[in-house]
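Submission checklist for the structure archive. All mandatory fields must be present; incomplete records are returned to the submitter.

[x] Identifier: Ubiquitin carboxyl-terminal hydrolase
[x] Organism: Cyclotella atomus
[x] Residue count: 224
[x] Sequence attached
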Amino acid sequence: MDLPKEKRWFPLESNPTLLNNYISSLGFSNERYGFADLYSTDEWALNMIQPPVLALVVHFPMSSKILERRHEMHKEVETEIAMEFAILHALFNTPKCIQSSEIEPTSWAEMFLNECPADTLPVDKASILENDNTIECFHDAAAKDPSNQTNRPEIDDKIGIHFATFACVNDKLCDLDGRLDGPICHGSTSIANFLKDACGVVQKWMDADKNEMRFTMLALAPSA
């Protein structure tokens, strides 16, 4: 009997226009909230983002120095699907009032939330997601979307880049990464201080390998 082929996902670009279109296709309204580029961890850049910031998606290089700084735990998820997990972490760790107002009824996002309540084990959520043909189609369409600013890579290309998401969950600064067994808690925070606190952690990653410049950040915040 032939073994099932490993499912492969094309990497998604760190591009707010692309990702706002993508979350809309999943059923998260981007009329009031959407992703915006955050250009630096410095105060001037933070002041350009309209509060409240609901999540921060970080696109970072997987150098040995940065992984060591993050206390890498080597989980099972492929790097190519990392953006998928980062986006879903951002959407599904927003406050319940945001989810109820911004997630459209009968959409893929609502169905996934119903299928994977909060007490579902991360490995089970990952399995459900990786075997979901609907989101695979949405993902592939986004990877081919004309709003991409770079050429679509080959499926076997090693990109050496990973995504993680920061969210404020129960007044804790949580670092959510599909390659890890669970969230990393970086201490207390608040919605008001969340972006500054998250950028403080990201700056430590940057300081760990000053030769690396391949960082980008996307804030999920009120649309302009």
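[x] Structure attached
Curator remark: The chain has one domain: 16-222. The mean pLDDT is 80.
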